[in-house]
Amino acid sequence: MTEMTTIDTLHGEALALAADQAVRAIPPAWPLTATVAVNPFLGQVSDTLNQTAARLARIAGVRLAMPRKHYADKIARGEITDEDLIAALQSSAVFNRIDLPALKAAATEEPQPVAALPTVADLAARATGRDWPALVSERIGSFAAGFFDQGQALWAASRRNGLYAAWRAFATHDLTPEILGLKGFGIHVDETPETPQGAIERVAVSLGLGAEPGTYFHQLLLSLGGWAQFSRHIQFKAEVEGRTDMTALELLAIRLVFEEALYARHKQAIESEWQQVRRKHAEPVAADFDTVIDGLLQIAAERAAQRRLAATLAAPSTVKVAELRPVLQAAFCIDVRSEVFRRALERVDPGVRTLGFAGFFGLGASHRGFASDVSEHRLPVLLKPSIFSCSAVDHDPDADQQARFGARAVRAWGRFKLAAVSSFAFVEAMGPVYAGKLLRDGLGFGKGRGPDAAKPRFAPHLDLETRAAAAETVLKAMSLTEGFGRFVLIAGHGANVVNNPYASALHCGACGGYAGDVNARLLAALLNDRAVREKLAARGISIPADTVFLGGLHDTTTDAVTLFDDDLESEIAAQDIVRIRQWLAQAGSLTRAERALRLPRATAESVIARSRDWSEVRPELGLAGCRAFIAAPRTRTSGRSLEGQAFLHDYAWKKDEGFKVLELILTAPVVVASWISLQYFGSSVAPSLFGAGNKLLHNVVGGIGVVEGNGGNLRAGLPWQSVHDGEGFVHEPLRLTVAIEAPKEAITDILKRHAQVRALFDNGWLSLFTLDEQGQMAWRYTGGLQWTDMRQAASVADVRKAAC
Q1: What is the DSSP string of 55-107?
Q2: Which of the residues 70, 251, 607, 792 has the least number of beta carbons within 10 Å of its own beta carbon?
Q3: Cβ neighbours of residue 318 under 8 Å, at least 6 residues apart?
Q4: How far is the C-alpha of 409 from the C-alpha of 406, rounded, in Å?
């Protein structure tokens, strides 16, 4: 008896581990109100792209690669050279089995389509001619939409005792499966164990899975699309806050119960095929020949892009920087859209210099805006808030409280408009009042929501010592500890669009879907504080008495910059503020002209109007095209067009004592940039799995996400319009190239201490280079804490070319 109990315990522990691994293989998806770019391969960073591609071919029926024609055309145009293809072959273990002619020939032949292993629902559908997978998806989606609803539903579903318990209560009374042919389903659900763990164990026994389901659990969660990803988000968020959560595990249990019910009803017809499928799920995942070829072509495309980047950085700068003290220094987010504006701003006057830093500006703020009773976490989702702030009206202590009451009243009014008992009467009585607004917005004369005019303030309990320490940390991380200009603009960024469920996705891709205005204004106020400056001076950072910090907001859709000069305690001379505004306006005009070349049907003059157009599915292209992350002094990149494709972070390693800032860059901004880059990659190469579909067909569900059409799975990732312009891709899916000006030994030391970051580079999800003091790419990281001298490799290549 004891031996059997031990076996059962071990069986349960193995299944629990397999279920947990399947849950962690799913990427999290944040709700539309606070969209965060997420690496869809977050659960596979310990594998290579080829291993991940092989897994997803097995369980999702997708290839993680562009059509071969994409690469063949680049080879034909000379964009991918023989040198790039040979480098890809040499980087792979298949170099002795595939040569250059074979690789070029393979690029001209499309691979055979792949098919996912069938689930029990798929097998039952083949046996009966009924679309059981669609029924499963629809019933789980219908329940999940109500359970996860964030204010859109008029009757909220019960969340008592968690997802699984709520579903059992729902499913035992849901007649739809019975009506559509799944007889006895309600009774079946009623007889399931009361815990999700118990249900998973019972189904594993019923289906004959044993203790090792292989890739089967992962497949079932993937089949639920955005619902699985949103559930994973709830768990991810809980773990960041030090809690535990089982929502995603409970969703897996629900999906398994459907499999069990279908298996019990159709076992005789599907048993033979199911046994074969079970065995295949248990087999090790291995890349086939086509997957290897796809991987080599992907590497070759990335080598070609890296070669072009190296040439750009090696070219002489076209901008002459004045040696005098700058009139204006402007710090922007490292976001790739800032690269275009920074380059334009530096062109308008030699007295302007720009910097790049993470868009939350080092202030992990939990903020309550004026007329809001909700705390907004304006910081990367990997971090917890360390600073608390709020917006309030000057000289009116009651205004903030009244405004929050008003916010609650607005929400109540909105629900009254939609409620079943009042919606039709509301339209009859109040519809004409909205006619003017509808006409105005429909003709494009309406306005989106602008930034909060009320000045943000730190919470009262934030003492001087804490504020000074925060200011010192930020300035050192920005490599801005000397050479301050007369004016320093701290420019957050955001996007102002209308009729766009993905509006928050156009804000910062990392900071919970919020604009950066609050953080910029808080930092400007902090650095203008005389008491803080005195503390900084005692710590070796002397800010000139006449230096003024200005908060600002760069609207990436219109390239207009709002200055919050009313936040200042003392006024700026009129001619100074006029000159700064003129520079910003000129830079905006230049930036719109450049961006319009990529936007379908756009001109420099129409860019602003597109942001107010209800029908415009591409008001801007977000971070499409992102392919590089560069951490170096601005002099290495200024005057060189990086075409809005590079994250630019200012960094001076000789000022970085103990390489603490370098460690911060590698473990935070680089990781965030990789999430963004890989989200665009996944949405491009596997849009059916990691993309949100066609914007024209979207319906918002529960305030959480969208479905495509009138039902089906929740869609997560980027809409097709974010990566494709209708004729071709506006984003070329390339894994991010990271180039840092720092000693390779310092980088190696950091990678030794951070296994998850090292895995991104060792497994090829990112490429890593060092820059030398001339800004040229000098060393390439080859994995396993090893480096290759690019300059030596380049000289060998030159010798080979001469010999040919």
Answers
A1: HHHHHH---SS--HHHHHHHHHHTSS-HHHHHHHHHTSTTTTT--HHHHHHHT
A2: 792
A3: 639, 640
A4: 5
| Kind plus residue range of the DSSP H or E element containing 705 | strand 705-708
The whole-angstrom separation of Cα 793 and Cα 456 is: 53
DSSP element (H, E) containing 270: helix 247-282
Q: What is the DSSP string of 564-628?
A: -GGG-SSPPPHHHHHHHHHHHHHHHHHHHHHHHTTSTT--TTTHHHHTT-TT-S-S--TTTT--E
Closest listed residue to residue 732, CA positions, set 305, 308, 311: 305
Q: Which of 676, 671, 687 is nearest to 695 (CA)?
A: 687
The Cα–Cα gap between 366 and 698 comes to 31
Tokens of residue 759, six digits: 């895995």
**What are the φ and ψ backbone dihedral angles of 512, each rounded to 5 degrees?**
65, 20
Sequence-distant contacts of 419-424: CB under 8 A, at least 24 apart: 419/154, 420/154
Contact predicate 700/708, CB 8 Å: no
Q: Which of 336, 332, 334 is nearest to 620 (CA)?
A: 336
- Distance separating alpha carbons of residues 491 and 515, to the nearest angstrom: 10
For the chain, the first-to-last Cα distance in angstroms comes to: 76
**What's residue 786's pLDDT?**
97
Q: Which of 310, 209, 307 is nearest to 259 (CA)?
A: 209
**Helices 162-171 and 132-147 sit at what angle, rounded to 10 degrees?**
120
CA distance 743 to 448: 47
Provide the pairing of β-strand 456-458 with 387-391: antiparallel
552 in Cβ contact with 491 (< 8 Å) = yes
365-368, strands of its sheet edge to edge: 375-378, 365-368, 387-391, 456-458
* Long-range own/partner contacts, residues 173-179 (CB < 8 A, 24 or more apart): 174/139, 174/143, 176/135, 176/139, 177/135, 177/139
For residue 520, which of 343, 360, 720 has the smallest C-alpha distance?
360
pLDDT tens profile 688-743? 999 999 999 999 998 899 999 887 899 999 999 999 999 999 999 999 999 999 99
Tokens of 551: 């908060």
The proportion of the chain whose per-residue pLDDT surpasses 70, expressed as a percent, equals 88
Both tokens assigned to 26: 């799913």
Cα dihedral 178, 128, 707, 44 in deg (nearest 10): 120
pLDDT at 107: 97
In this predicted model, what pLDDT tens digit does every residue of 161-216 receive, in sequence order?
899 999 999 999 999 999 999 999 999 999 999 999 999 999 999 999 988 899 99
The pLDDT tens digits for 157-173 are: 677 789 999 999 999 99
Q: How many whole angstroms separate alpha carbon 524 and alpha carbon 756? A: 34
Q: Is the pLDDT of residue 409 over 90?
A: no
CA distance 217 to 255: 9
H or E stretch at 631 = strand 628-631
Predicted structure pTM score: 0.93
Give the H or E element holding residue 783.
Answer: strand 777-783
CA distance 328 to 200: 62
Residue 385 confidence (pLDDT): 86
CB 787 within 8 A of CB 779: yes
**Residue given tokens 């008491």 in the structure block:** 531
The tokens describing 529, both together, are: 């504080």
Q: How confident is the model at residue 544 (pLDDT cuts 50, 70, 90)?
A: very high
Secondary structure class of 328 (helix, strand, coil): strand
What pLDDT shows up at residue 305? Answer: 98
Enumerate residues 6+ apart whose C-beta is below 8 A from 384.
240, 241, 364
Cα distance between residue 403 and residue 396, in whole Å? 11
